[in-house]
Amino acid sequence: MTVAAMAARLGVAPATLRTWDRRYGLGPGGHTTGRHRRYGPADIARLERMHRALLRGAAPAEAARYARSTAEDIEPPAETPRSSAHRIGRGLRLPGAGRRARGLGRALLAMDAAAAQEVLAEAIAEDGVTRTWELLAGPVLAALADRGLPPVSHLAGQCVRAALAAAEVGAPLPVTDNPVLLFCADPGALPPQVLAAALAQRGIPRTILLAAFPAEALAALVRRLSPAAILLWAGCPEQAEPRFFHRTKGRVPLFAAGPGWAEIDLPPQVRRVGGPGDAVQRLAASLG
């Protein structure tokens, strides 16, 4: 395999492969009659191990040592201590980021959706949906927004949605017929989708709806579905509308979630909650 083909396979620049060859001895081992160097199967396997270790947050020298190892059952190197604020990839910064955040940042900056989804899936399997959002996906998305990288942010959102959908596969059967109604003003907002996936994993049925419901339609929906709870997510103060809760009828537990409610006065019957993790805990507690 040529240098250009290998670079395309890994999603890196050819210059990166030449650097790995020069610094760590991970170059192609074969030559053609035209004196062009080509990567053989063993070379490809080493570079793929190097790439996987880097995506998991290893330092380049540690990743190279791992790549040169021949034992397939050797664990990828653990993260190395870094300063409290350090760069990820080519300029992405996260305060106190761990190895998974560095790996997710590198994968997204390389536009490697498969690697990004692998990192997210591993995190969800080990830490759960809400902790993955709060400690990994949310901070990385915020750092991408700060850098002003719309294409990468769009890919990141797609990867998070795919990971959330995968997390719902095999979720337990609903423990009740009464769903939690999740309302939000922004149909593309990720936190309500994180909350929905976390509820599904607990066997709690849920439906995401737009907040712009006419009063009559909302009252009819509540009568028909007999929801276990109603939650309105507000990501910013402009989305926080206390009058929404006055349109609900009946004795349904009401929740206001998200940072948009921080400075908003709520009706006495509405419970204020924080992010998806806090909302899941409070909703589950209210449902008994």
TrEMBL record:
Top-level taxonomic group: Bacteria
Output the Pfam families linked to this UniProt entry.
Answer: MerR_1
Renumbered residue ranges of the record's region Disordered: 66-91
List, alphabetically, the InterPro entries matched: DNA-bd_dom_put_sf, MerR-type_HTH_dom, MerR_fam
The HTH merR-type domain, residue ranges: 1-69
Family matches, as SMART domains: HTH_MERR
Does the UniProt entry include the keyword DNA-binding?
yes
The record's listing under SUPFAM superfamilies reads:
Putative DNA-binding domain
According to the UniProt entry, its GO molecular function terms are: DNA binding; DNA-binding transcription factor activity
Q: Does the keyword DNA-binding apply?
A: yes
The record's keywords, sorted A to Z, are: DNA-binding
In its UniProt entry, what is this protein called? DNA-binding transcriptional MerR regulator
Give the organism, scientific name: Crossiella cryophila
Print the organism lineage.
Bacteria, Bacillati, Actinomycetota, Actinomycetes, Pseudonocardiales
